[in-house]
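From the thread on structure requests for the teaching lab: each student submitted one protein with a one-line request. Submission from student K.M.:

"Model D-2-hydroxyacid dehydrogenase from Pseudomonas xionganensis, tokens only."
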Amino acid sequence: MRILIAEAEHRHYAELLQQQAPELQLISAADPAELRSHAAECPVWLGQPDLLAELLRTGARPQWLQSTWAGITPLLAADLPRDYRLTRAVGIFGQVMAEYVLCHLLAHQRELFARLAAQVEQRWDNRLPQSLNGRRVLIVGVGEIGLAVAQFLAPFGVELRGIASQPRHLAPFLEVAALADLPRLAAEADYLINLLPDTPATQNIYNAALFTQLKPTALLINAGRGSAVVDQELCQALEQGLLAGAVLDVCRQEPLPAGHPFWTTRHLLLTGHSAAPTDPSLLVQLFVQNLKRWQRGEVLRGEVDFNKGY
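Reply posted by the TA:
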């Protein structure tokens, strides 16, 4: 079977796949023209959504496409076909995303950047920090990654609440409510963590109206999608002290253009879409497992419902 690999790290993916499934015929290249010339003869595609979206625009079509990203937004563009099976990367980001979130919770709780500023100014700062224990954490997006983050944070004694498409009972959360309850739960949160995908329902939900509900000591972490945040309204809220800070891993436009207000807004940290990078070895394991399912006509892990957008 021929597998098309369209990835920035295509050689590494090809090596890992060859080790796990030597019977596969792999087509991988950095040259888009070479990929286009082979696309039609490969029933299965593996790679990053932005590159594969361009292949789809040439008229070629896979039977099944495995994304190496958790997000598949480029493949949902209105001008692209949807008559193929699409799976996103699942089961490989929980640990690394949880580490990212915990890193910034601790940095904020321990006032790490304020202490660095004090050191630069040669000013002794002996304020005593408080513990994460008892802090209220709201995870917006209680999917596989959100649940993994919650399980990672639970031993630190935080109070966990979540937002999902539908209310549900799910340990270790004290409450999981619907998106309509975001203002209520956000108003009580010390830490507001967005992990939502990009769908029409999740766009622009972090806006001026919501920011007025937050505690002035709250921290917003967005590791979901940049479209969830209204940029200028977040900057204004930070300047007005409506929340204590924001950590943004994702932006509406990436890379962030020069002159964007995010670069200079106080109490805003950019982390350059680095929160949860794909581990190629884990992704290849997922792909090989899904390939066996696909060959047997079974349900695939991470299969996307085009109508839902995830």
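TA comment: The chain has a mean pLDDT of 96. The radius of gyration is 21 Å.
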